[in-house]
Design brief:
Number of strands of chain B: 0
Number of domains of chain B: 1
Structural class of chain B: mainly alpha
Largest interface: A-B, 47 and 46 residues
Shape of chain B: globular
CATH superfamily of the largest domain in chain A: NADH:ubiquinone oxidoreductase-like, 20kDa subunit
Shape of chain A: elongated
Radius of gyration of chain A: 30 Å
Oligomer: heterodimer
CATH architecture of the largest domain in chain A: 3-Layer(aba) Sandwich
Helix content of chain B: over 70%
Helix content of chain A: 40-55%
Distance between the termini of chain B: 55 Å
Chain lengths: 364, 216
């Protein structure tokens, strides 16, 4: 439950030094593109911040987002930030289950009415589809979501499934999956897409809320601009090779070994907005393109249906070759038919042609 | 993103279908027109002369150089530029490869970028010239301006997309592809069809002249 302990007290109790704390504040400020003058303010605000109640709902998801989040733990200070919010309900991480767990959720909602944050990972079967595709404690995902967000201050959709429908929504979408923003219309929503999102991005959004008491600035897809403001392509260290026209043609050629651009191997970096190229993964160790694989575009809506992962971005998503073959055949038929019609017209005209003699002309 | 998926999927299919049906049907119709049999004795070869004519007509006559320098130079620059931007830009080669299974090396992007700018400048110069020259203006109709616009838009939007001057990128990339689809749909039914009929008619002229033994 949200208690009166401030974040500063909680961090000290967990053995975080003042230096470590300020380092985190500086990192948060730079991550969110805030000026250095904001660092003391962030420190001050975080010191005094009351631990807000967070209810984490997991629906049609693979737990990858939670896995990612837990990688920001031990012993980094981002992990402690998570110790320092009051995570009152998270059915993957909590010990309790069944009615006990649901009772904890309801109690947290009741005590913090209008103030708690709902974090959602996973899509839900839409209101029109069979609720039986995904239930928790016998409650449909839709009912649980709508019931829980009623008293929420804000909703954070973590992962592409919650933000845009993700994998469950991929064609043919058997469960009628929809994104959280498709059904929750009356609450402030932040989308933190990615499959999974970068751990620091999840904690960064929550830190922003703790510091400023409001949600960060968002782009047109409701993603925080601080992390999703620039494309992978614009920040990619392989960009000079794209500009020079040096591309890897397969995963085992000279270009691949020399670290050339992966555009031809299907990299979706040019259309993907995320912080992978700057924050990187695994505590800044590496990221997909650095390890030699193109970007899949996982933080963009419908990335699963956006053409093959190993096909260049400029390639159409449909089977154009089949369409082209059919069109050529149809064109040939139409052309021949038009040609025959012209011929018939010509011979018809020739038949109707009446010759006149000079005498006949003279009579006229 | 929905928009980008639509232009890369169903819309592209429709555009390609209309384009190919139009081009193939028109070519068949033209070829089936036929010609009356020639009964005179041939005074020279047909095929070879036709082929030679295709190249000969690309060399401007001295008189035309003098009288229509802007049209001539502008026309050459813009056509060669168009060829380079369409066929030697790597993303375009990938697209062609996905449909026809053939690929070739592209040019470095900054080179294509420069050529694109030169192409656009040439097209603008030609348009201004068309508007300022009384004779050209009088000869121009709606179709001439329509074909200019549908040719110019893909180049402009592609250049803007390459430089990422519009955010988000999927939007401008989608607009670029949409303008190309517009060009594909318009091409077979306007004088842009010359892309396909040009060499056919040049060969035919050359072949007729060859048979008659006339200097061409």
């Amino acid at each position: 439950m949200a208690d009166s302990t401030t974040l500063g007290e909680s961090l000290r109790r967990n053995g975080v030094s003042r230096r470590g704390f300020l380092k985190f504040c500086a990192a948060t400020a730079s991550m969110m593109a805030l000026p250095p003058s904001m660092i003391p303010r962030i420190a001050e605000a975080l010191e005094k911040a009351r631990r807000p109640s967070v209810i984490w709902l997991s629906f049609q998801e693979c737990t990858g987002c939670t896995e990612s989040l837990t990688r920001s733990h031990a012993p980094t200070v981002e992990g402690l930030i998570f110790d320092s919010i009051s995570l009152d309900y998270h059915h993957t991480l909590q010990v309790a289950s069944g009615e006990q767990a649901e009772a904890a959720r309801e109690a947290a909602m009741h005590e913090n009415m209008g103030k708690y944050i709902v974090v959602v990972d996973g899509s839900i079967p839409g209101p029109g589809s069979n609720p039986g595709y995904s239930t928790i404690a016998g409650i449909s995902n839709y009912d649980m979501l709508m019931d829980t967000v009623k008293g929420a201050a804000a909703v954070v959709s973590v992962g592409t499934c919650a933000a845009f429908g993700g994998l469950p929504k991929a064609r043919p979408n058997p469960s009628g999956a929809v994104a959280i923003q498709d059904v929750v219309k009356d609450k402030p929503i932040v989308n933190v897409p990615g499959c999974p999102p970068i751990p620091q991005v999840i904690t960064g959004v929550l830190a922003h809320y703790l510091v400023f008491g409001k949600l960060p600035e968002l782009d047109s897809l409701k993603r925080p601009l601080a992390f999703y403001g620039q494309s992978i392509h614009d920040r990619c260290y392989r960009r000079p090779f794209y500009d020079k026209g040096l591309f890897a043609e397969n995963f085992n050629d000279e270009g691949a070994r020399k670290g050339w651009c992966l555009y031809r191997l299907g990299c979706k970096g040019p259309m993907t907005y995320n912080a992978c190229a700057t924050l990187k993964w695994g505590l800044g160790w590496s990221w997909p393109v650095e390890s030699g694989h193109g970007c899949l575009g996982c933080s963009e809506p419908d990335f699963w249906d956006a053409g093959g992962f190993y096909q260049a971005l400029s390639i159409p998503t449909s089977n154009v070759t089949r369409t082209a073959a059919a069109a050529v055949a149809a064109g040939a038929v139409i052309g021949v038919a038009a040609g025959l019609a012209n011929k018939a017209k010509k011979s018809g005209a020739a038949k109707k042609h009446q010759t006149v003699t000079v005498d006949q002309l003279g009579k006229g | 993103m929905d928009f980008l998926l639509w232009v890369r999927g169903p819309a592209f299919d429709v555009a390609v279908a209309i384009f190919l049906i139009g081009v193939v049907a028109r070519l068949f119709e033209i070829l089936l027109l036929g010609r009356k049999p020639l009964h005179s004795e041939p005074k020279g070869g047909e095929f070879g002369n036709g082929m030679a004519e295709i190249f000969k007509r690309s060399v401007p006559l001295p008189d035309i150089v003098k009288r229509g320098a802007v049209t001539l130079v502008g026309g050459y620059v813009f056509h060669i530029g168009l060829f380079i931007t369409i066929f030697l830009f790597v993303p375009h080669i990938e697209l062609i490869n996905s449909i026809f299974g053939v690929r070739w090396p592209g040019l470095p992007n900054p080179v294509v970028d420069g050529v694109t700018v030169v192409t656009m400048v040439a097209m603008v110069v030609l348009l201004v010239h068309r508007l300022l020259q009384p004779v050209k203006r009088m000869l121009s109709g709606f179709e001439d301006y329509l074909t200019w616009v549908v040719t110019f838009l893909p180049i402009l939007t592609g250049w803007i997309a390459y430089h990422r001057l519009v955010n988000p990128y999927p939007l401008i990339l989608g607009i670029h592809i949409l303008t190309v689809e517009l060009l594909l749909i318009v091409l077979p039914f306007t004088k842009l069809m010359h892309a396909f009929t040009l060499f056919l008619s040049r060969w035919y002229n050359g072949a007729v002249y060859g048979r008659r033994g006339v200097q061409s």
